[in-house]
Amino acid sequence: MTGRRHRKSSKNRGEWDGNISELALVGKGGTGFVFAIDKARVVKIPAGSDISIRAFKREREAFKILGQQGQNQFLLACLDYHLPDRLVLERCESTVRERLQHEAMECSNDSPRWRNPAFMKSSIAWACQAAAGLSFVHSKKIVHADVGCHNMLLDTHGNVKISDFSGSGMFTDKKGYLPALVTYDERSRKPGTSGATVQTDIFALGSAIYELATGHLPYSDLPNSQVRSLFARKQWPDDLESIKAAFPAMRNAIYKCWEGAYHCI
What keywords were assigned to this record (predicted)? Predict the structure, then answer.
């Protein structure tokens, strides 16, 4: 989990008593807060609303299925889900989107990311890692429902960790199917869908890979209504052809995700 540090946190990993009063706030969102326990761990707690508590319980359910300590190297590791209102998670450095934005600022020109071989080396690796992580999620009968560069964290080695299962849909032994609590925004939503399925996750992965190649989301300069209309007609961004010339495999992955050519990852 990422964010701005406000207070000094513990430097050394050790036993933690569950008290957050002296921990530094390092991240917050609509449904929860994240505090640093030490350099390797953070704790996530619900914000307190009914929606946030429901989202917290959903994420804990997901980690129970995915496995404690992380059974896949490209998923954010849950170190402890047994506390009633706490999730102890692996600490990461930033989101992929934040890294893309930072690297774009380093460039002295406005050229697209795919023109920079050094940046693209990282983008290709992140795309492969995200696909591998999402494949594992799907193998556990979980639909992520919010795939994107904002939910891909980077660890200290620069590897992707898929995060945020607070809105995910899943099959459970005791409760049966739990539908997703969130839906995709226009630039990641498969046309003609409203819920979350494996296919909507795959479509969103295509949008994430596009962002990895260009540094921005599809049609980032257009209003949502126009994006919806273009996607419905399968009119994909023109720079797909430019990406194809430089990185054909990456372009093909984006295109197939959007066209529905993949039934699974």
Answer: ATP-binding, Kinase, Nucleotide-binding, Transferase
